[in-house]
Every structure is written in structure tokens, then in C-alpha cells.
Structure to design on (452 residues):
């Protein structure tokens, strides 16, 4: 039986700032904080995806702060999922559209199905549904917008909160002077290493808008599950001046706390690699959540980041559990 | 009248709150998508400063346009105009921090303007 043509959308890469589509799909008029990083990320993702898109919004800042009092800012279809089951809801929507297309009830291009989950909704509480979706080979783009905490409930620690951050669950004190003692999960490696069906995984930040939009478009043009990990600084949770939101993301890349890369067919490609990394202290200094740290804690963080930087210069050669090309 | 509406009628306290017709929540809370902007949620009264652009110095690098979380900078490619729309600006000054030209974008106190927004007349 020949493969059915679902008429997947082909989105061209954006070459320059002037070529960015003018139409907004994530409209102004929402309750996010001033200088919100995740809101900027949502706007850029929606802009890149275009009007033929369905968003799945599991509980998190981008659900609570946007969809309140019956005034949502989404110009495209949007559905709320519980924080645990965003991947399952997305799988159902994708499967329904595929069946409708096969039976001739849905004509026209296949919609872009995007899950916009926070770090809790993707790699903590929502991990099993996300993993199940990746395993079953659904054509869904799963985005983890990472503000490194459970921000909408009052900045509780999450598995992506960095070492040494003060949150309401990890307050620094006499017994534990550094606040959070654990090191965060490596989110993209978790997805790459455990899911042979996944087609494309990339990391980016809101400070690189063209890079972000092009990675969204590239991910949406793949025929199977894809994953994006996007760093979205949170002025209220990280306790820095709200006008510095993009600068914080830039500093994260410049100090090595974050690296922008994409993974495709087992090959890594790093972008925005600085010639010389700044010390992590430069990144931690403007943020109130690291204000309590002593030099020995910053040295521990620097050692962790140095290990990470070594991987950038020498990426892990074999990535997926099963060679990906043979499955396609 | 659907089955769910009839079930709701049997609940104690049904009909005691006077909700305007256009604000009644349908079952499942399906709401129409806004067009252009979400007018029901104006956030202009949050700000204390607003960005003011020097048209002569602006080079159209569009850093502000792609750094605003609230889409307050509107760029039209055909006539090369970049305008600030203040209805939703929260005054976060991200655009000013991202501006690449010195002095092209500055923060001005909101009360210096004739129509400066301090508080909306009625809460939303």
C-alpha cells in the first residue's frame, strides 16, 4: 500500500528580520508579567508557525496567565490540557486529523500541532505523556519553554532549576547555604536518548529570534515527533530587572550555561558558540536567585559548566538508542 | 437546550447571578478567537514609562519589534514604518534595552503625556 499523502505544510526558512511574517497569532492583551520571556517565546513561535496551527497548552504560566476570564490571546485554535497529559491530548488530535484526512473529511493542508509546555509540563509532571507521544511517532512539535521553575504557582523548584538557585522550595539557610543542591536534568538528551522515533531536537533562546523561528519551521516540516527546548528568562522568578530578559538569555549562551544546538539524524550542529566563554559569575550576578551564593558555590557551578562546554567542542557521536535513518 | 444546561438548572443557586448575555460561559468554555488584539484585556495602565522613538536615529534594525512580548511595535514592510501601539504596552523597557542605536529609543514618564495612561476609567 503506498503511503498516504497527508499534505503536510512546507514552511520556508526566514532569511532576515524584515522577512518575518507580519501577522501576529499570539495577540497582545494577556496577563503575563512585564518583560515576560515565555510570552515573547510564544509570540515568536506562533508567528513562525502561521495561522494553520493548533496549540495545546498544558497548565503552566502560558495557560494561567493567558487564558483567564474568557479572554485568550490566541488567534489560532488552542486547547487546554492538564499538566500531566499534554502529549496524550496532542497525540489524539494528530491521530484524529490523520484519520479524517484518510477518510476525505479533512481537506487542505495538515495543521501544525504544537504543544507549548513549561518545564514542569514536559520533563517533570508531563514526562510520561510527552515520552509516550514521542514513542508512538506522532507528527507533533513539543516545545518546552524553560523558565527554570514552576513560576505561576510562586517559583517552586523544578528539575531544570539550576544548582544554587533560591526558590520557595529551596530557600538558602544555615543548613543548606546554597539553596538548591541538585543539578538540573539534561532535557534534550533525555528526549534524544530515549526515543528512536524522534526526528529533530533543538535548543534555542528568546534572544535569538531568527534562530528560534527557523528551528520551529524546520521542526514543523519534519514528518514525525520533534522537540524544542527554549530558554525563556523569567524576571519574577529569577529576580532580575525586567528590561534585561533577552540579555539574560544572551548571557546564558555567552557563559556556557546554555548552548544552542540542533540534532538531526544523529548529527549535532552547534550555533552561537562564543569564541571565549565568560565566567558564570557574570550570568549569576544580575539574578537575585543566586545572590546568596558564596565563591565556593560559584566555583562548583563553573566546574559543572566547564564539563558541559567540553561536550560542545566534542559532541557525543552516537545519540539515539537506535540508529534513526534505518527507521525512516 | 442541551442535556447539560438542564442539569445545571437543577443545581442550587442557578440563575441567582445576573450575567450579561455576551459573558455567559458556554459548556466546555469554548470562546471565540480574538481578531487583531484581545481588547478585553488592555494592559496599558500597568506602565509608568513609555518608549519614545527618535525617527531620525532609527535604523530599522527591528530588534525592538522582535523583543516585545506584547507585540507593541508594528512594522509594515511595504512602507517601511515602525510604530508603537500603546494599548497593551506594560512598560517593561525590553525594547529600549535591546535598541542598537544610542538614544534612538528612550523611556519617558507616562505623566508627561497629555493622554498619559495612569488608570483606566473602569477596571476590566
Amino acid at each position: 500500500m503506498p503511503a498516504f499523502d497527508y499534505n503536510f505544510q512546507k514552511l520556508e526558512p526566514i532569511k532576515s528580520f524584515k522577512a518575518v511574517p507580519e501577522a501576529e497569532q499570539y495577540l497582545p492583551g494577556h496577563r503575563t508579567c512585564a518583560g515576560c520571556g515565555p510570552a515573547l517565546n510564544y509570540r515568536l513561535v506562533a508567528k513562525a508557525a502561521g495561522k494553520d496551527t493548533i496549540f495545546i497548552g498544558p497548565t503552566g504560566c502560558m495557560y494561567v496567565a493567558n487564558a483567564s476570564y474568557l479572554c485568550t490571546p490566541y488567534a489560532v485554535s488552542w486547547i487546554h490540557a492538564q499538566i500531566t497529559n499534554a502529549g496524550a491530548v496532542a497525540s489524539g488530535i494528530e491521530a484524529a486529523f490523520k484519520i479524517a484526512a484518510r477518510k476525505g473529511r479533512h481537506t487542505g493542508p495538515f495543521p501544525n500541532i504544537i504543544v507549548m509546555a513549561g518545564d514542569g509540563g514536559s520533563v517533570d509532571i508531563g514526562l510520561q505523556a510527552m515520552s509516550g507521544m514521542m514513542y508512538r511517532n506522532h507528527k507533533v512539535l513539543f516545545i518546552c519553554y524553560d523558565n527554570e521553575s514552576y513560576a505561576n504557582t510562586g517559583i517552586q523548584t523544578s528539575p531544570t532549576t539550576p544548582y544554587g538557585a533560591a526558590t520557595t522550595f529551596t530557600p538558602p539557610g544555615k543548613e543548606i547555604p546554597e539553596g538548591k543542591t541538585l543539578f538540573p536534568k539534561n532535557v534534550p538528551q533525555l528526549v534524544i536518548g530515549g526515543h528512536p522515533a524522534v526526528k529533530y531536537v533543538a535548543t534555542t533562546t528568546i534572544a535569538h529570534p531568527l534562530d528560534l523561528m527557523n528551528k520551529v519551521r524546520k521542526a514543523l516540516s519534519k514528518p514525525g515527533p520533534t522537540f524544542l527546548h527554549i530558554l525563556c528568562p523569567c524576571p519574577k522568578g529569577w529576580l532580575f530587572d525586567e528590561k534585561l530578559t533577552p540579555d539574560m538569555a544572551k548571557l546564558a549562551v555567552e557563559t556556557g550555561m546554555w548552548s544552542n544546538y540542533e540534532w538531526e539524524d544523529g548529527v549535532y550542529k552547534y550555533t552561537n558558540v562564543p569564541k571565549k566563554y565568560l565566567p558564570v559569575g557574570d550570568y549569576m550576578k544580575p539574578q537575585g536567585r543566586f545572590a546568596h551564593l558564596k565563591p565556593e558555590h560559584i566555583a562548583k557551578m563553573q566546574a559543572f559548566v566547564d564539563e558541559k562546554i567540553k561536550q560542545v567542542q566534542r559532541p557525543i557521536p552516537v545519540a539515539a538508542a537506535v540508529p534513526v535513518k534505518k527507521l525512516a | 437546550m442541551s442535556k447539560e444546561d438542564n442539569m445545571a438548572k437543577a443545581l442550587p443557586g442557578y440563575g441567582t447571578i445576573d450575567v450579561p448575555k455576551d459573558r455567559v460561559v458556554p459548556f466546555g468554555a469554548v470562546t471565540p478567537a480574538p481578531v487583531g488584539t484581545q481588547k478585553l484585556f488592555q494592559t496599558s495602565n500597568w506602565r509608568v514609562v513609555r518608549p519614545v522613538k527618535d525617527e531620525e536615529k532609527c535604523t530599522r534594525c527591528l530588534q525592538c519589534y522582535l523583543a516585545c512580548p506584547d507585540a507593541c511595535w508594528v512594522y509594515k514592510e511595504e512602507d517601511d514604518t515602525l510604530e508603537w501601539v500603546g494599548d497593551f504596552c506594560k512598560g517593561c523597557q525590553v525594547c529600549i534595552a535591546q535598541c542598537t542605536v544610542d538614544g534612538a529609543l528612550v523611556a519617558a514618564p507616562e505623566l508627561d503625556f497629555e493622554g498619559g495612561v495612569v488608570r483606566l476609567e473602569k477596571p476590566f
Q: What stands out?
A: The radius of gyration of chain B is 21 Å. The helical segments of chain B are 3-9, 94-98.
